[in-house]
């Protein structure tokens, strides 16, 4: 285990941290680009330089079965990362960029499955443009202002989420669990809700937005 260390302006080598557990470490303006972080665990680590407002780079990094728990991933760059089975829990990831990241295992050109465990995170203003996260654990996240243009969350557990300033019109949420979520400005006229799970109170809220008066029977 690597504990309580600080790294500044470093570019890490391919296998430097593969399979390691790092706890309470601080990374300022560091680059993990193209490194192999498979099965690497980061616990209570900081990846954001608050003074310079810069995050760390994980471009093209191998993050298969890697985990981040209670980390500050603000402005982190995960573009084109290979992240099948990646776990991100209770992290601050405001403004993080996941565009081009793959959480998929391609079986054939038309057959695949996804695996990701991303729960209780702050993904406000993060970029998930065109990211495929089908049938994944995505519950209790804050999605305020996140870019989900062309994203596919079909079949995922999005329960307990906060979806203010969320663009429902350009993301696939069919067969998702949206129970116990703040659905923001979801317009059921414009969004494909096939197979979506919601609560009774959410149903009333959505119908009232259409001008209907919902009477609760006693």
Automatic annotation (TrEMBL):
It holds the Pfam family Pentapeptide_4. Transmembrane segments: none annotated. Coiled coil: none annotated. This is Qnr family pentapeptide repeat protein. It comes from Rahnella woolbedingensis. The lineage of its organism: Bacteria, Pseudomonadati, Pseudomonadota, Gammaproteobacteria, Enterobacterales.
